[in-house]
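Protocol step 4 of 6: structure prediction from sequence.
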Amino acid sequence: MIFVYDDSGNKIDYGQYGLTCYSFIPESLSPRFSSEEIENVDGSILLGTTINARKLYVEFLFNAKDHIDYQLLRDEIFKFFNPKKDLYIIDTRLPGKRWKARNSTTFKPEYLTPTVGGFGLEFIAFGVYAESIGSSLDPKTFDVEKWQIGQGLTDDNNKYIHSTNSFSIFNAGEIAINPRKRPVVITFKGASTNLQIKNKTTGDTWTYTGSSNPSDVIKLDGIRSTKNGLSIFRDTNHKLITLATGNNDFQLTGTSGSFEISFDFRFYYV
């Protein structure tokens, strides 16, 4: 029913603990409204809406060889679901998406037989949304086993490396991407003077008042801006490039000669 990976991306064989997952159910979005009431006015004024951390419900059975093995497996299971550790959970029915979550409940495996136990867990996905297993730079083919139907990808919108000054970047997810909250790496390789990267769709503009040679690499990694690994933040306008859902139309200025720009990010889903 689910695959489980550790925070380093290594698949964990939870079957070694005698575990079998028979139910995985994510809850819907849980809104948190901010409002203001006005005297002598019916209702209230909505000021904004944010989303609470997401709960994921998982049910397990586990099988032991005998009574002593039951106790040993139980203790291993306690360690496996340590609430201090992040786990990535993938619903095997939707293998192109994963949830980063932590166990948030105490649990007590109940005897169903002398050697079979059962228990339920409540995970919390603090980032709320499921993310694509593949990134924008991964091949968009099903044989790489990172994608699935229902991820918003089309044959016409899957190019994330460009060498022209005008191009489009497609965010196939359902959530806009802000580098302050979700990883985005924009890499420019080539010569430039006063490089400017503008997302005309969102209005975001990033500028660098310096220059680069044909072999230099300028990278916008989250909130960091570097050239050949060294910070150039003080020579920028201190802005960030966000990505709206769907097409994002870009315009570059300040380039000189041939260059390459790439966008590396994941897609996020409700």
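Step 5 (inspection) to follow. The chain has two domains: 2-128, 136-269.
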